[in-house]
Design goal:
This protein is mainly beta and about 325 residues long. The protein has one domain (about 5-315): TolB, C-terminal domain (Neuraminidase, 6 Propeller). It has 3 helices and 27 strands. The protein has helices at about 135-140, 235-240, 245-255, and strands at about 5, 10-15, 25, 30-35, 40-45, 55-60, 65-70, 75-80, 85, 95-100, 100, 105, 110-115, 120-125, 145-150, 160-165, 165-170, 180-185, 190-195, 200-205, 210-215, 225-230, 265-270, 275-280, 290-295, 300-305, 310-315. Strands 1-24-23-22-21 form a 5-stranded mixed β-sheet, with no helix packed on it. A 4-stranded antiparallel β-sheet has the order 2-27-26-25, with no helix packed on it. α1 packs antiparallel against α3 (about 245-255). The longest helix has 11 residues, at about 245-255. The mean pLDDT is about 95. Belongs to the strictosidine synthase family. This is Strictosidine synthase family protein. InterPro entries: 6-blade_b-propeller_TolB-like (IPR011042), Strictosidine_synth_cons-reg (IPR018119).
């Protein structure tokens, strides 16, 4: 791994609500996010703390996680409680696109992307643990994460990949030939081929120095940004090699212990060959558990499952 350079904080924007888990930028440089109480917010002027403000666009009635802006201006929302949603940002209308697969309720819908033909791909992090007990899945290493596809007009998603280790962030390649899936529990990114002779196959894309969360592509030709929610934990890797009964017992204990996130904050940018373009890190950060990153107004904007606001950092110079 290349040595990281400094992640430079500029300012912090409180939102009056906890847990802006995913952040995405719109074409006007505004940032959209979903918070713990179910609201979808739009942050204006995130680069200027003097004029920055947040407005409420909608309420999902659940817990919004991953977001994806659609070409028509609507928003795809992965809600950990309600499933895959479509939100009309002009009037706040919320419509459920899918809340189950093969008769099983979507317990932990995590992130989504849409392709030009209207197909929606989305991830489910765990089939055993809800969001409130996410640490249990990471410890037990259940491998119950999934990648699903919802074709235009369908009500029932199709399972494309199973057995993923806490499937999380999702992003397309620049040419649309494959998807990149973050497997938080294995500190890696996986490529799923959409076209070509290997369509339908999955393969390694990149091993990472930490646990990836949400992914965000910076424009059609820009890099793929990766939020690192935590650095690698060597003892956890050793635990993952123990028998299932041992991991299950450890997970049962872990969900009852308050989680203390690492003080090391990190984000990366990769190209479509899985090569590192940027690796930024900050030790002893006051803003912890970074679960998302996007670029807006020439800055990096960071989201977090735990913090009551977003952090704005300096964007690195182009290589």
């Amino acid at each position: 791994m290349d040595r990281p350079t400094a992640l430079v904080p500029l300012h912090y924007l409180p939102l009056g609500a906890r847990g802006p888990e995913d952040v995405v930028a719109d074409p006007h440089g505004r940032v959209l996010t979903g918070v713990e109480d179910g609201r979808i917010l739009r942050v204006h002027h995130p680069g200027d703390p003097r004029t920055a403000r947040a407005e409420v666009l909608a309420e999902t009635g659940g817990r919004p996680l991953g977001l994806e802006l659609l070409p028509d201006g609507d928003l795809l929302v992965c809600d950990a409680e309600r499933g895959l949603l479509r939100v009309a940002l002009d009037d706040g209308t919320v419509r459920v696109l899918a809340d189950s697969v093969a008769g099983e309720r979507l317990r932990f819908c995590s992130n989504a992307v849409a392709t030009a033909d209207g197909t929606v791909y989305f991830t489910v992090s765990s089939r055993r643990y809800p969001l409130a007990q996410w640490i249990g899945d990471i410890v037990e290493h259940t491998g119950t994460g999934r990648l699903l596809r919802l074709a235009p007009g369908d009500r029932e998603p199709e399972v494309l990949l199973d057995g993923l280790q806490f499937a999380n962030g999702l992003a397309p390649s620049a040419d649309g030939s494959f998807l990149v899936v973050a497997e938080t529990g294995s500190c890696r990114l996986t490529r799923y081929r959409l076209t070509g002779p290997r369509a339908g196959h999955a393969e390694p894309f990149a091993d990472l120095p930490g646990m990836p969360d949400n992914l965000w592509r910076e424009g059609p030709d820009g890099p793929l940004w990766v939020a690192l929610a935590a650095p690698r934990v060597p003892p956890l890797g050793l635990l993952h090699r123990t028998p299932p009964a041992v991991r299950h017992a450890a997970a049962r204990a872990a969900v009852h212990v308050p989680y203390r996130p690492s003080g090391t904050t990190g984000v990366m940018a990769l190209d479509d060959e899985g090569r590192t373009v940027h690796h930024l890190s900050r030790r002893r950060s006051g803003f912890r558990m970074v679960t998302s990153v996007c670029t807006a107004g020439g800055h990096l904007v960071l989201g977090s499952l735990r913090e009551p606001g977003v952090a704005v950092c300096a964007r690195p110079a182009a290589h």
